[in-house]
């Protein structure tokens, strides 16, 4: 267990934990945080997802910008609403479907920058929608302000080819 996690283990009523960019390699030590609802772990050194078995109240899990190669050990997170997993090493749609299909509350996923998205960018969003029909948002949609010749402004969707989400 890391020294950091030893120091927070007494905070059993903690609801939100944000620890990005801390060179965290494993999640062991979070067992006592059973009230945890939001966990932000972006920009660390995680290679897998384990150690969250006691954190069944998680609604938001952010593991973006790590080195996670397998989507596993999430089946017990039945309250999960958002999973942010951008820029990892996830490559299997089968794992995505297996781990997330029964999550009725799950409405937002971020998988951009993973091999599963890069391999077939044109089909990626359709595959996620088929695997996870409950999803309402797949990755972020950026809007840009376009200045028209008359000085008027218009909002343009950069992902207009993916407007079905």
Automatic annotation (TrEMBL):
InterPro entries in the cross-refs: Leu-rich_rpt (IPR001611), Leu-rich_rpt_4 (IPR025875), LRC72 (IPR042655), LRR_dom_sf (IPR032675)
Keyword GTP-binding belongs to the record: no
Keyword Repeat: yes
SUPFAM superfamilies reported in the protein's UniProt record: L domain-like
Keywords: Leucine-rich repeat, Repeat
Protein name: Uncharacterized protein
Source species of the chain: Arthroderma benhamiae (strain ATCC MYA-4681 / CBS 112371)
């Amino acid at each position: 267990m890391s020294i950091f996690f030893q120091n927070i283990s007494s905070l059993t009523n903690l609801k939100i934990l944000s620890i990005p960019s801390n060179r965290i390699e494993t999640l062991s030590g979070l067992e006592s945080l059973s009230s945890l609802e939001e966990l932000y772990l972006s920009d660390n050194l995680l290679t897998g997802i384990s150690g969250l078995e006691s954190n069944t109240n998680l609604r938001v899990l952010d593991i973006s910008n790590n080195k996670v190669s397998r989507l596993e050990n999430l089946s017990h997170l039945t309250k999960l609403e958002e999973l942010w997993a951008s820029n990892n090493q996830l490559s299997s749609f089968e794992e995505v479907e297996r781990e997330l299909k029964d999550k009725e509350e799950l409405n937002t996923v971020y998988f951009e920058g993973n091999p599963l998205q890069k391999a077939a960018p044109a089909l990626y969003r359709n595959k996620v929608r088929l695997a996870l029909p409950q999803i309402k948002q797949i990755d972020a949609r950026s809007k840009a302000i376009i200045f028209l010749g008359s000085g008027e402004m218009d909002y343009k969707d950069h992902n207009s080819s993916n407007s079905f989400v």
